[in-house]
Amino acid sequence: MTRTGRPRNTDIDAAIMRAMAELIAERGYSRVTVDDVVARAGTNKPAFYRRFRDLADIVPRILAARHGRDDDIDTGALVTDLREVQRRQQQLFTDPVVTRGFAGWIGELSVHSERMRPFVEGYLAPRRAYTCVILGRAVMRGEIAPGADPAWIADLLTGPLLMRVVMPGLPPIDGALIAQTVDAALDVLGYVGMRGGAAASKPAVRD
Length: 207
Known about the structure:
Elements: H1 10-27, H2 34-41, H3 45-51, H4 58-67, H5 78-93, H6 96-99, H7 102-109, H8 117-140, H9 150-166, H10 175-189, H11 198-201
């Protein structure tokens, strides 16, 4: 006879993630404790540890729930695909969980590198891999020549935004930076088509 345990209460998962996000925004990652989170979420430590290994385990789940993996982007043109990628990255990198929590979270994981793997494999890698899909479609449409390095393009798009997050005193992420990163990627790709116009300013995402 197959035994079935008590169904997991997903409301508790959501409450814990919501509490963690609120506390990071209020205090910064380094000043949040498990006791703080379970008190804010209205639950207890056993319930917490049945769902999460530690506080660091929650951050990528919050980001995935809020920002997805970008694999629905398909505007029909390279320029607007890249602009939509960067519009979403702007939302990601201006999320308080990132602006207030990223440095402390990365600092904690830097001494436990094996704990970074779920974030890389489950969240970061799929987002980066989709750059290859976007570039492949652009090649098929004849917008760029084959042979571009998708990993480098992903780094080129993300690096300047990440720098603005982790380096105190730099200007905020704004529309000008987003436009510059897209233009830089198009230059590297050898794109010679139109970059402006009304169609480019309103990217569409295919269902």
